[in-house]
Amino acid sequence: MATSTALMQKPDVAVVVKLKGRVTAAGVSEAVGFDASKMLDELSADGHVEPVKAGFKITPTGLDVVNEALDAVRRDVGDRQLNEWYGAFCTINADFKATVTDWQLRQAGDTAVLNDHADANYDGAVIARLQVIHASIVALLDQFPPSIRRYRRYRNRLDEALCKLLGGQRQFMASPAVESYHSVWFELHEELIMLCGLTRAGEAEAGRGC
Questions:
Q1: CB within 8 A of 82, min separation 6: which ones?
Q2: Which pLDDT score, from 0 to 100, does residue 4 have?
Q3: pLDDT tens across 41-64, in order?
């Protein structure tokens, strides 16, 4: 059983490396929810990932592993269901983008200024909006079957970021320096784009970027 589990998890590790571009073993482990160090070493020995400064990146042969993993999800779920999920995500994403913008900027008369977070009531209202969005994205992720574990893992990561934000750590809304809500959301969006066979450039042009 352990071997079977490992065989199923290794493609998840490869996809995360592809998604992040250059990533440390700790970064991969955080994304997949288990210690991925051994699997990274195995993927490296097979030539599917390669060590770079401070981490790993995918290789051309590793892209085959990624594509096979994505194909397996498409077969398991079906294109119609994937498109429905992605459409639902895009609807939620529009609200999320507006919420993050309002967290970073606030209106001062007719002018948008940087939010200095001095107004606790303003920040509290924005966070309340995020909590509504969080409930919507959790409901969507709960529809994903257990066979695509990596996507369901995003629920835990978003929960953790929201918990820290509610605890007063403002950087967990949108800072790229931590596992913030926006950072995790961006990765989820990237995964869904990749899974649906779309491109980031095309989605940005269509107004569906993060």
A1: 74, 195, 196
A2: 41
A3: 999 999 999 999 889 999 999 999
pLDDT one-digit tens code per residue, 141-186: 999 887 777 788 899 999 999 999 999 999 999 999 999 999 999 9
Together in a domain, 105 and 176 = yes
List Cβ<8 Å contacts ≥24 apart for 53-56. 53/22, 54/22, 54/24, 55/22, 55/23, 55/24, 55/25, 55/27, 56/17, 56/22, 56/23, 56/24, 56/25, 56/28
Q: Do the Cβ atoms of 13 and 55 come closer than 8 Å?
A: no
Q: Domains in the chain: how many in total?
A: 2
Containing structural domain, residue 36: 2-70
Do the Cβ atoms of 174 and 180 come closer than 8 Å? Answer: yes
Residues 178 and 98 both lie in one domain: yes
